[in-house]
What does this fold into?
Amino acid sequence: MRWRNAALGMALLLVGCNGAQRYDQAICALIDVSGTYADEKREAVAHLKREILPNMVPGDTLIVIRIDSESYEKENVEALLTLDARPSHANAQKLALARRLDAFAEGAVASEFTDIPGAMMLGAEYLSEVGAGSRVMLIFSDMREELPKGSLRPMGEREFEGIQVIAMNVKQLTEDTANPDVFRRRIAAWEERVTARGALGWRTLMDSSKLPDYLAQIR
Amino acid sequence: MDILYLWPDKPALSLFVLWLVSSVFLWAAREPMLQLLKGIGKSLEDGFGKLAERCGLASESVRERNRASLLAAGLLETQSKLDREFQRVDSGFSEQVERYAGLHRRLDDLLNHAQADYRECGNAPPEVPGWTSAVESIASIPSNGDPNVHKILEGIRTSLRDAEKRALSAYRVDTAKRHKVLGGMLRHWKELRNLMSRMHESVAQALEKTMRISTFADDYERIRTDQERAARTLTYSAVKLFCVSLIVLTIAFGGAFINFQLIALPMSELVPAGARIGGVPVSSVSALVIVLMETALGFFVMDMLGITDLFPKLAHVPAARRRLILSLALGGLLFLACVESSLAILREQIVEADAALKLALADAASPVIQRASTSQIPLIGQAVLGFILPWILALTAVPLEMLLDSGRHVAASGAAVTLAGLGHISRAFAHASRAGASASVSLYDVYISVPLRIERGVRSRSVEEAPPSRAQRKLEVANRERALSSGEVRT
It folds into this structure.
């Protein structure tokens, strides 16, 4: 009986130590290739390579999804990678992913419409499937939604549950420059929309060099 | 404050009414209130007094126990030193006695050799007394022209010269032989001198040991006789040991931290890098475990070498098993040192790979340093550090034992001082409680001074108006009689 109690105690201790908490991070980067933001694709890839890839640790996941006219499609997933537990293998994986991202940046893909919600829904599904300790969605876009006729994107009530959404490098359009309030209202509307669907938070970042620290903070 | 006002627009009136009502109420409750205040003061005074007494007793008890423990520890230490010295003397004496027979035999041999050589030096063929001068006299006789005599005399002269030459040659040979023998003796003398100097060293060592034993015996005697002074000395010694061991352990902790940092990164190649235990990466936990294992092995090594006594049970293990445990611990330390050394090299490779990755991922515009240096010195330095640090960590057993031993006495001394301080503070609180109770009684009377004054006025008037009682009348008569007898009435 005493041995059984001791074994039970040890098991509880181990479970308590190891815990159900996960410390890995899954990052889903949505890159807009439509209209005015198509020129920013290379810049977005450079941000990914410079600020995110080097700071990812073994066990972390990176998903890159293209935002185009019909974003809610599996073909829009440009890259999906979970880093190996060994740092040397993880480095090799990072290099391979960087080459794929370079190819994506060089590719001449452009779309007429901007299906941001579709890409976000697809990204949320992938993030939820990975089930990492912290989940982040990065959106490289001008944040102006343009859906093709007939497309519906009804988001679930808890669509972005447990996800931190960051709008990166949001490009200001001509009307935004003319009236900054238009830009601010658009961003505020997205914030309200995202947080209403269970997102942990919403943030806009203009300077990508702050991203590594922020990602480390929410890890 | 506003809540206290009966009429918020008239604060002065409200406060006056409040004071009036409260002073009347407190005047009415004066007796029980004074009793209550005095009771509280008395209880606090008694409580703090008791606490002070208990603290003083506890402090004295702890101090006494610590003193006894210090003396016992001092006696034990001196005894163990004496035992160790006696053991050394015993083993040294046995060894010296064993060697003495050989030394004696060697000395005898050398002396015999020297004696024989001396004798041999003295062996010289005796010369026939007067023979040479007789032959010389005969040879110098004039021949007087007789050819036969001349021939005979010439023959004698020739043989005399030959004999002289032979004698000189024999003398030279003898002298050379003596020199050779004397040269042989020189070696024996040198050996004798070496033996004598070794004997002198042995005697000096024995004398030194005797002096040390004498010092320990004096210490032992001093501890037994002059306990107060010994306790003071031992307390000072314990505090000094505590401070020194604490400093050394802090430095060792710094070394352990460097050691940990050296292997934490490369450990991520050996264990799952993403996994965590309680929020800490498994690689860090593994590195920490390796550092702690090195320290633990160091404990065993030091114990088996007889330097520390952290595991008293191991002291009774037979010598063969002690040697086995020592070998295992040393082997383990060597293995871990090699592992650390290789991990340190791996660390450098990982750092270089990370730098290369950052370079590959960086934009052309980003200022990334290509390579800091091509020198192999950092790599060699890390490898050597990784090999050396485990052995240094193994030595922490010594200051740790010192810290544990001395920390007990220092903690007890600290507890005694704290308890004594607490006792003093309690005594001060007891005094303050008594003074406070008296002051609160006076303040109470000050607060209700108006109704009190009225009460006293009413009482005195009622006393004046009331007819004198029988006792008062008796007192007045007695006073008058006393005044008459002393003549006050006349004056």
Residues 142 and 172 of chain A are 6 Å apart (CA to CA). The interface with chain B takes residues 17-19, 21, 23-24, 46, 49-50, 53-54, 57-60, 83, 85-88, 90-91, 94-95, 98 of chain A (CB under 8 Å). Strands of chain A lie at 25-32, 61-67, 77-82, 134-140, 163-168, 201-205. The mean pLDDT of chain A is 85.
